[in-house]
Structures are given as C-alpha cells and as structure tokens.
Amino acid sequence: MKKGILYVLSGPSGSGKTTLAKHLVNTVDYVDFAISYTTRNIREGEENGIDYKFIEEDEFRQMIEGKEFAEWAEVHGNLYGTPVKEINKVMDRGIDILLDIDVQGSTQIKTTYINSVHIFLVPPDLSTLRDRLSKRNTENSSDLEKRMKRAIKEISRINDYDYIIVSDDIDKSLRKLESIIESVRSKTVYMTGEIFKLYNIDNNNS
Fold first, then answer.
1. Which strands make up the sheet holding 37-38, listed edge to edge?
2. d(Cα 33, Cα 24) in Å, to the nearest integer?
3. What DSSP line would sit under 53-81, residue for residue?
4. Residue 196 CB burial class (10 angstroms; 0-12, 13-18, ≥19)
5. Which of 2, 36, 4 is nearest to 17 (CA)?
6. Residues with pLDDT less than 70, the chain
7. What's the predicted TM-score (pTM) here?
8. What angle, 0 to 180 degrees and rounded to 10, lies between the N-to-C axes of helices 141-155 and 126-136?
9. Domains within the chain, CATH numbers bracketed
C-alpha cells in the first residue's frame, strides 16, 4: 500500500491554522490529523484526545527521553509534541496526514520526513493579527505583546516553507489549501507507482 503524504501547517497564534486544519480534515476524506501532546491547560471548547492529548510535564519529558517525538517544542512555557507512532499510524494506512505545528516543529519534521510538504498560514496584516489575538481573551496585555513579537519572528521564516497562504478568509484559505494538496498528490513521484500498476508496467524496467 502507498504511504500517505505528510503536510505541515504552520502559522503564528491567531493565524487561524487550527480552524483551517479542522475544516480540511472534515471536508477531505483522505486527510487526517496526528494528535499532538501538550502540557498546557485545556481551553474551553477543547476535548482531550481530539484537539490535543493533555498530559503532565513529567510524562512529556519521559517521552522526550524515550525519543518518542518526531518533533517537540516549548512555546510560551508549555510543551508541545507529536509522537512518531501517531504520524506513522496514519501514513501506514495510506492516508495523508496534516500536522498543525509551529516553526520549530516544522524544522524538526524536515529532518525526519524529507518528503514532507510545508505550508505557512499568515494573517493579512499586523492589525488583523492583533485583533484576532485580543478577541481570544486568553492573554493579558504583556502576554499579547509577547505573542505579537513571536508572530513577527515566525513570519520571518516563511522562506523555509513550500507554500504560503494569506488567511484573510476561511473559505478562500480552505480552497487554496485543498488546491495545494491536490497539486502535491498529482506529482510524478507520488503517481508513478499507481499508474504503472494500472497498466502492468514493471517499475524497475521502465
């Protein structure tokens, strides 16, 4: 069975990447999530085992020691990571997988999964980003400024990504993301095996 393709979706807090990722998985049958682990507190509306697996810091650090994470990072005092087993479990079923992770995690994934596809979601401008973060009501003014500074630092890394989506509208962003995935799936490197199988062509002697 052909393995799935790994996609990384990154963007600063307030870019809308988690919302976009959920929309994609709900509308495209062959794309699924790998659930990440985190030590931060669960937020209103989140479900353990659905949005994240919420664990204690001691357990998370034991997983680091056991080299269980494909990527992990400390963000705003909290630990986030995606276990290798969660990624491979999905890809081994021939299903594409989408990781909603930050810039640090994206860099780590590239070293382990060299054919992974990296997409950056950026807000249309700084004022929109600030407005989105303010409306979340999850940070005080000091924390908000820290997130804004981190956002600018992350946006400066967009040259490390394969694709960029400006997240001015969720429906437009979703269409762009779907188009990127369809384009990647149509690449020769992913299609050759299927086509040769259909036409009974020996891949080794072609």
1. 53-54, 37-38, 78-83, 69-75
2. 10
3. EE--HHHHHHHHHTT-EEEEEEETTEEEE
4. middle
5. 36
6. 1, 136-139, 205-206
7. 0.86
8. 140
9. 6-198 (3.40.50.300)
